[in-house]
Amino acid sequence: MKYKIFTIVGARPQFIKAAALSRAIRLRFQDRLEEKIIHTGQHYDAEMSDVFFEELEIPKPAFHLHVGSAGHGRQTGIMMEGLEELMISEKPDLVLVYGDTNSTLAGALAASKIHIPVVHVEAGLRSFNKAMPEEINRILSDHVSTLLFTPTETGLKNLKKEGFVPFGSGQKTDVNQPAVFHCGDVMYDNALYFKELALRKAASWFDGLPLPKKKFILATVHRNTNTDDIHRLKSVFQGLLKATAVLNAPVVLPLHPRTQKMISAFSAADSFFAEIPPDRICIIPPASYLQMVYLESQCEMVITDSGGVQKEAYFYEKPCIVLRPETEWVELVQSGAAVLADADADKIENAVLRFSASPPVINRGFYGDGKAAEFIAGQIWNFLSIKA
Predict the structure, then answer these.
(1) What pLDDT, in 10s, does the model give residues 330-368?
(2) 192-357, CATH topology level
(3) Same fold, 3-185+368-387 and 192-357
(4) Are 237 and 281 in contact (CB under 8 A)?
(5) Which of 122, 248, 349, 358 lies in disulfide reach of 242, CB 3.0 to 4.6 Å?
(6) 180 pLDDT above the threshold of 90
């Protein structure tokens, strides 16, 4: 018997994670699991969406909701309405969600309310800051899921504290008795799988841009707490300029559409944003996954407010400065591979000085063996076959 799985995606990190599990299903479970990808349209720009499906060989979405931008409540509500209609008509055996976006929450809530089992990949992560929409999304998604796959020991400990029990042999599993698995990180699966391809394909793209080739800092800025506050965004850019001075190397900044929009808006109020020196902060269009892998593997260090990029810096053994006051990837900070600097120019400069004086010793080991997706697909099959 072949079981139907709905995979809900809507944002860049989810496309990347979905690539690993789709690959595992295609290579190992094609005769037992049928995956249908549902794109909510949360990220709708071609550079933030279409390119990932193409280069990561992800199956084209079976359905696209075209939701686009909106406030959290409206966006999540529209997604839930569209997803519920699809689930009722298509009758999937299971719904799979990733991470902590509004698409994650909408998929988890819509499925759980009509009694379709939910699988949450990247469960158990906590920043312990409920001012972050992502924290609300991940907590609620965990608590309506039937199968929870956590990438780290820290995530497993967090779930235990909230009353979840790790999976045991013979355990009955349903939404009231969910099963928790510590499985490693599907993004690490992809880091291993795509690195050589990225080096081959992205090098030609890199050669065609006016970028420094041997020594540069990679930065990304996209969280609304940083982009939508003129004082925080200015402090971040001041910190980037301080970083370039310390390392005598420019910053390469693939610019998120939201960040670009806010820089343009703030330029009228503060000439600083209109006068960002391009020889010190080299702004380029949003990068695809393979292009980001290339940049991450070639840079001196990473400065970011992205959870995914924090991990990718670790995968490629680069020190990372986090533009947030906290992170759900606490093991990176505890090991010395990352430093929390928030949107504080002086803290950013101090972190660069610290890393340049004493680079961290990064021994990859927190995120599994590169076979997380295969494990997840196997457990999904086991659950569905026993449930039947």
Answers:
(1) 999 999 999 999 999 999 999 999 999 999 988 778 999
(2) Rossmann fold (3.40.50)
(3) yes
(4) yes
(5) 349
(6) yes
Query: 169 vs 81, 151, 317, 346, CA distance in Å?
Result: 37, 20, 37, 52
- Which residues are known catalytic residues? 222
Domain ranges of the chain: 3-185+368-387, 192-357
Per-residue exposure over 113-148, b if at least 16 CB sit within 10 Å of its own CB, e if not:
eeebbbbbbbbbbbbeeeebbbbebbbbbbbbbbbb
Write down the pLDDT at residue 109: 98
Per-residue model confidence (pLDDT) at position 195: 86
Q: How far apart are CA 337 and CA 124, in angstroms?
A: 21
pLDDT for position 56 = 83
Task: Give the type of residue at 238.
Answer: Q
211 vs 132: which has the higher pLDDT: 132
User: What's the predicted TM-score (pTM) here?
Assistant: 0.89
Domain range 3-185+368-387, its CATH number among 3.20.20.140, 1.10.8.60, 3.40.50.1950, 3.40.50.2000:
3.40.50.2000
